[in-house]
What does this fold into?
Amino acid sequence: MTSAPLAETTALVTGASAGIGAATARKLANDGADVALVARREDRLTELADEIAANHGVDTHVIPADVSDQAQVTAAVESTVDTLGSLDGVVVNAGVGRGSDVETLSDEQYRTMMGVNVDGAFYTARESLPHLREAAGSLVFVGSFAGQYPRPFNPVYAATKWWLRGFAHSLAGQVGDDDIGVTVVNPSEVRSEFGSEEGTPFNERFEPGEVTEPEEVADAIAFAMRQEPPTTINSIDVFRRDKFGHF
It folds into this structure.
């Protein structure tokens, strides 16, 4: 494998402004890919794009967008192809958690999780598929431990990740003959800004080395993206070593 296995390819990453998304964008750029960065915080995206361009010498494209809005997702995909010339890989990473127990979960919290985690994943996949078919590209979904095992703390968040995993694997069956690789990467707790909207974010709650780092998840995503037809990595679990001791 060359030192730049993703050279002359373009990857789009949602939720790219921090955490797993930012780490993934850096990793893919290190592998030679041009990267389109999608998230709501334009200032964060611009800062990251400048850093990536300086450190890796690839092209970047900043797209401030809300993935729960279908029109914005369509525009983001079209803008990526127009600006960077192709779309060879997509990382569906944008996701949020809100609330906890079902009885007190507000309609707004419920709709926010469904809008980003479910609708956003669907819109991103649907708009990307024609371009990935043309490129024999890869579609990587960031799932969760919570999408494989019961999560009593937040059943609705868990349900969105169960949906994501079911959608991804079923989609793999539908587009496999088109040489589109579909992978789900399932991390357990990640030391990122996740949870900051309603409490202490994971990067403050956990000490370094206590749980998974964003860069470890990014490594798994990049591994999946490097695969060429006919090989597809269907799923990768990235769990902390003691995870099942606490399950």
Observations:
- The first strand starts at residue 10 and ends at 14.
- The mean pLDDT is 92.
- The chain has seven helices and seven strands.
- The radius of gyration is 17 Å.
